[in-house]
Write a structure and sequence with these properties.
- Helix content is 33%, strand content 15%.
- With 404 residues, it is of the alpha/beta class.
- The strands form 5 sheets. An 8-stranded parallel beta barrel has the order 4-5-6-9-10-11-14-15.
- Strand 2 and strand 3 form a beta hairpin.
- Helix 1 runs parallel beside helix 2 and helix 5 runs parallel beside helix 8.
- The relative contact order is 0.16.
- It binds flavin mononucleotide (FMN).
- Flavin mononucleotide binds next to strand 5 and helix 12.
Length: 404
């Protein structure tokens, strides 16, 4: 392996990163999470496959690691993209159960990230399933989405109040119950990166004039209603939320600090009443979606969140940028309640936890294989001490088989 395919790191085994931490009612052995990472290996009916079982099991190999799944469709209405897993049929539940059993056998824990696409869906994909293309308001992400919607005969329209109630009273609770039946330890609401829940927070995508639009309280109403609905169903100690205050992924302006200050204060109120969520996951301004943000374009920071939210935090976003030293990482975990999420380096280093512990070099990831349907660039990465050579053609020919 040439030097350029690796990055050198220092061993972090003797730092706080490798001290246990309680999250909800579980104790993790180290403060590391696999951040949610969409890889599009599921079947067209959104059932997780054997390749995913192998992939997640390997990344759970260091006992006491938190594995957060790739974003997973909460409901058919929230779908609209191919080969993404779901948690809305019995088949999905059975398939995820196999993956969770395997993660638990490794001594690790799992969190499902519940996804609803809203205006980020492919309108044709929804149309083919007889489903409408819905968002907080009929404001397209871009011209291309609008053209696709017109061509598909499925133009974007605003959720009716009844459809919003259905998200709160039906779609999310059903997904959460299914997730519990599938054995997940935690349920994370994806309220980041310009998907439905984040679209409600952002005035760029939310132009409603009813109680779900306009003021900060109104824009944050949906996410808090879902949180309040799910607390008695799953228990606050199993519930989590992901927010991206600074991301401009799929939007022209970030959501910013003010609305997140309000949301975190509201979550803190619930914590004071004995309902502290398991964790709040924050995307750092160094990244937006699945890519780095140039240093001169980075805006804001998440320090405000630490001042309000007193529970556990997971922060993710290019924490390897200052390797081998990891100064930012070490500073951010100083508070004894922050975990660090890794996404891209977990794709190419199944034993990332071990590598961080011992200071073994990290293999660089391959963006070209992030969303391919086959096994090349998926289960073709070795642990530090393994030397298996994979046949590219053969692995490209290997696609997943439904687990149920
Ligand atoms: C291929 C890929 C897929 C991703 N999928 C998701 C996702 O499903 N849900 C989500 O909240 N973030 C997703 N992200 C963002 C990551 O969770 C993470 O915030 C980001 O990659 C920064 O972390 P990193 O620097 O460790 O990669 C994705 C990132 C990548 C690279």
């Amino acid at each position: 392996m040439s030097e350029s395919t690796e990055i050198k790191i220092r061993a972090l085994g003797d730092t706080k990163l490798f001290q246990p931490i309680q999250v909800g009612s579980n104790t993790l052995n180290q403060r590391i999470a696999f951040a949610p990472t969409t890889r599009r290996r599921a079947t067209e009916d959104h059932t997780p496959v054997d390749l995913e079982l192998e992939y997640y099991t390997k990344r759970a190999q260091a006992p006491g690691t938190l594995i957060i799944t790739e974003a997973t469709f909460a409901s058919p209405q929230g779908s609209g993209s191919s080969r993404v897993p779901g948690i809305f049929t019995e088949k999905h539940v059975q398939a995820w159960k196999k993956i969770n059993d395997s993660i638990h056998r490794e001594g690790s824990f799992s969190s499902i990230q519940l996804w609803h696409l809203g205006r980020a869906a492919d309108p044709k994909n929804l149309k083919d399933k007889g489903l409408p293309f819905l968002a907080p308001s009929a404001a397209y992400i871009n011209e291309e989405s609008e053209q696709n919607a017109i061509k598909a005969g499925n133009e974007l329209r605003a959720f009716t109040l009844e459809e919003i109630k259905d998200l709160v009273n039906n779609q999310y609770p059903t997904a959460a119950k299914n997730a519990l039946a599938a054995g997940f330890d935690y349920i994370e609401l994806h309220s980041a990166h310009g998907y439905t829940l984040s679209q409600f927070l952002n005035p760029v995508s939310n132009k409603r004039t009813d109680e779900y639009g306009g003021s900060i309280e109104n824009r944050a109403r949906l996410i808090l209603e879902i949180v309040d609905k799910l607390i008695p169903i799953v228990g606050a100690n199993r519930l989590a939320i992901r927010l991206s205050p600074w991301a401009t992924f799929q939007t022209s302006a970030p959501e910013g600090e003010e609305i997140h200050t309000y949301i975190l204060k509201e979550l803190e109120k619930r914590a004071d009443q004995g309902n502290e969520l398991a964790y709040v996951s924050l995307v750092e301004p160094r990244v937006s979606g699945n890519a780095d943000v140039d240093k001169d374009k980075q805006q804001g920071n998440n320090d405000f969140a630490n001042k309000i939210w007193k529970g556990k935090l997971i922060k993710a976003g290019n924490y390897t940028y200052d390797a081998p030293d990891f100064k930012d990482l070490l500073r951010d975990i100083e508070d004894n309640r922050t975990l660090i999420g890794f996404s891209r380096f977990f794709t190419s280093n199944p034993d990332l936890v071990n590598r961080l512990k011992h200071g073994y070099p990290l293999l660089k990831y391959d963006r070209d294989t992030f969303y391919n349907p086959n096994n090349w660039g998926y289960n073709t990465y070795n642990n530090h001490d393994e030397t298996e050579v994979f046949d590219e053609k053969k692995e490209q020919g290997r696609v997943g088989v439904a687990l149920a």
